[in-house]
């Protein structure tokens, strides 16, 4: 009997130790989350909102508030719009939060926390008075017009380089090569003299589709790209409407490199004509700049080469 009692005691102590270890692990995980984000559902009410609806998009409305004396941006699920279904707006907002959670880069707006309490029409069947309750908090930045701000040459090259590095990061992101699907000048703000991207709900990693015909070199790809076979893991992916088996006649391909080319094109259309206007630079730099501008307008430059040329211009300026 004494032996059985000791065995039970050992087993109980072992289980208690296991439970305490699990609790410590959970606490470490919770602290990791708290280290990453300042806000969650428990403390978001402590933000003092002083400006409402300063901006609205397809899925979100934007408020400005303060917390411990610092300005923050609060994005909330926007009120119902006749043109966009509530469920679709919820999906877009949740997608933005999930994508932002997986990206870490200085050129991307910092998310300070989020809270998801319920979705639209959840609750009692007969009475569903609540729309979705989704909130995310971001660092505060200022809107700007690149055409109308005063910049010296060093600042012009700095901003041109930081935008190029952002494109490089998106090309090699943890989610694959990402395209800024809803590219707007208003989706970039200035935070402590850095240009940051603030909108992610239409960002995706799907390259432009094409018809893969291996014996025909010409393709229907934009930017003069080649049509490539899907990668092995993509051709059998559950994200396809049906698996692509090239042995059974599948001709689905992708214009690999389209996403980064598109991002270069849009960054050039919005920012580089103002930042890299040759007449703003000394005469000894204008010829090199004019050549770079021509390549950008033709979208005939890779992101790595763009960064290299901008760094060379910066080196020329500092020497």
TrEMBL record:
Residues 48-319 form the Protein kinase domain. It is an enzyme of class 2 (transferase). Keywords: Transferase. InterPro entries: Kinase-like_dom_sf, PKDCC, Prot_kinase_dom. Its EC number is 2.7.10.2. It comes from the Eukaryota. GO terms for biological process: skeletal system development. GO terms for molecular function: ATP binding; non-membrane spanning protein tyrosine kinase activity. GO terms for cellular component: extracellular region. PANTHER family: PROTEIN KINASE DOMAIN-CONTAINING PROTEIN. This is PKDCC. It comes from Mytilus coruscus. The lineage of its organism: Eukaryota, Metazoa, Spiralia, Lophotrochozoa, Mollusca.
């Amino acid at each position: 009997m004494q032996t059985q009692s000791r065995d039970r005691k050992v087993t109980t102590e072992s289980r208690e130790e296991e439970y305490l270890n699990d609790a410590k692990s959970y606490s470490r995980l919770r602290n990791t989350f708290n280290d990453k984000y300042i806000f969650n559902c428990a403390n978001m009410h402590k933000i003092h909102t002083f400006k409402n609806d300063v901006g609205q998009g397809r899925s979100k409305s934007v408020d400005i508030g303060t917390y411990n004396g610092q300005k923050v941006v609060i994005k909330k699920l926007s009120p119902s719009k006749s043109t966009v279904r509530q469920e679709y707006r919820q999906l877009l907002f949740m997608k933005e939060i999930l994508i932002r959670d997986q990206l870490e880069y200085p050129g991307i707006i910092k998310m300070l926390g989020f809270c998801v309490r319920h979705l639209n029409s959840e609750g009692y069947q007969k009475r569903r008075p609540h729309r979705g309750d989704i909130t995310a908090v971001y660092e505060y930045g200022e809107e700007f017009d690149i055409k109308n701000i005063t910049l010296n040459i060093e600042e012009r090259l700095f901003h041109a380089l930081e935008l190029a590095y952002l494109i490089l990061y998106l090309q090699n992101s943890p989610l694959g090569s990402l395209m800024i699907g809803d590219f707007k000048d208003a989706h970039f703000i200035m935070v402590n003299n850095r240009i940051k991207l603030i909108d992610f709900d239409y960002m995706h990693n799907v390259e432009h589709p094409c018809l893969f015909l291996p014996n025909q070199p010409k393709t229907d790809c934009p930017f003069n790209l080649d049509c490539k076979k899907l990668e092995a893991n993509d051709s059998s992916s559950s994200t396809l409407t049906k698996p692509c088996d090239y042995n059974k006649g599948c001709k689905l391909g992708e214009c690999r490199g389209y996403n980064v080319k598109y991002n270069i094109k849009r960054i050039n259309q919005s920012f580089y004509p103002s930042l890299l206007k040759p007449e703003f630079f000394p005469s000894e730099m204008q010829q090199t700049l004019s050549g770079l501008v021509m390549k950008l307008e033709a979208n005939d430059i890779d992101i790595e080469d763009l960064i290299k040329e901008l760094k060379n211009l910066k080196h020329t300026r500092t020497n």
